[in-house]
Design a protein that fits this description.
About 50% of the residues lie in helices and about 15% in strands. Helix 4 runs antiparallel to helix 5. It is elongated and about 75 Å long. The chain is an alpha+beta fold and about 300 residues long.
């Protein structure tokens, strides 16, 4: 059984990696060096903080499913607090990379603290990392350098605001680069969108809604071999609609077919689609269609 580490502070993270004492209690920027301790094989680690890490020694293309990534100069990984990292085999030190740890307390009272949930890539799986071009890597590394320089100065009343500003810049640029990653893989994205639409049609045409309820975004992502957040963002980029919106579009389309082709009561239709309460179905239907299920049936 692998050992489990629960790393709650920046100091504990530095100690685990064999780094010097951090310059700030709530954020740390460090370059990957040969002195780092990576002799932590076969362990599971949870960090009580955010992690952004650039791996920059990738050779050749990276395959994901049937898709081969075209940008291989650097891979950016994002980790949210309390996610589990499993380390197996023999980790290799990436001497050209860098990492940033920052504790939620650093941004808690800031605008970033309120908006960080919108950066859904913190909940992507590892194989959904951001693959950077050379220019993109340089742009982000320059911002990281600005944070480093701020940490090396004597902290004053402006320090935290400037550090958070630079952190937010990294996240905003990463959002842009993820959009680019979706767009440059249009055929890959369209293939998954087609598969997703087929999955939903088959799901609602079967007995699964009765047995399992309305499919969640995470369940849909699992069926596509990706995280629910990545699937939703991919769909949003390609179609303008999130995974949840696609689920309800298919659900309403199926509901319309049942209402017009059967004598089932509204309650029976609701239960057949996975709703626990008919009132919830009627509310959703009216929000999406503009008519109640009964009004829609009578109109047609």
């Amino acid at each position: 059984m692998s050992k489990i580490y629960n790393i709650k502070t920046i100091s504990e993270a530095h100690k685990l990696l064999g780094l010097e004492k951090p310059l700030h209690p709530l954020i740390s920027v460090f370059r990957h060096t040969p002195e780092m301790n990576l002799n932590i094989q076969n362990v599971s680690i949870t960090f009580g903080m955010y992690l952004i890490s650039l791996k920059n020694d990738i050779k050749g293309a990276i395959d994901y499913g049937r898709n081969s990534y075209d940008f291989v100069e650097g891979t950016l990984l994002f980790l949210a607090p309390n996610q589990v990292v499993k380390v197996t085999g023999n980790p290799i030190i990436d001497l050209n990379g860098w990492s940033i740890f920052f504790h939620p307390d650093l941004i808690r009272k800031s605008e970033l603290g309120k908006s960080i949930q919108q950066y859904t890539f913190f909940d992507y799986d590892v194989n959904e990392a951001l693959h950077l071009s050379h220019i993109e890597r340089i742009a982000l590394t320059e911002i990281v350098y600005s944070i480093e320089q701020e940490l090396k100065q004597n902290l004053d009343r402006h320090s935290q605001e400037l550090i958070i500003h630079n952190l937010e810049s990294i996240l905003k640029y990463s959002n842009r680069y993820y959009d680019r990653q979706f767009l440059t893989r249009t055929n890959f994205s369209k293939d998954y969108i087609t598969r997703f639409e087929h999955y939903l049609k088959n799901y609602f045409a079967s007995n699964q809604p009765i047995e399992k309820g309305i499919p969640s975004v995470s369940k849909c992502g699992e069926s596509m071999n990706m995280s629910g957040h990545y699937l939703s963002d991919l769909l949003k980029s390609e179609t303008g609609k999130s995974a949840k919106e696609h689920i309800y579009l298919q659900l309403i389309d199926r509901a319309k077919s049942i209402l017009l082709s059967s004598q089932n009561t509204i309650s029976e239709v609701a239960y057949s689609l996975g709703f626990d309460y008919p009132q919830h179905f009627s509310k959703i239907f009216k929000e999406k269609v503009g008519l109640s299920p009964t009004e829609y049936r009578n109109l047609n």
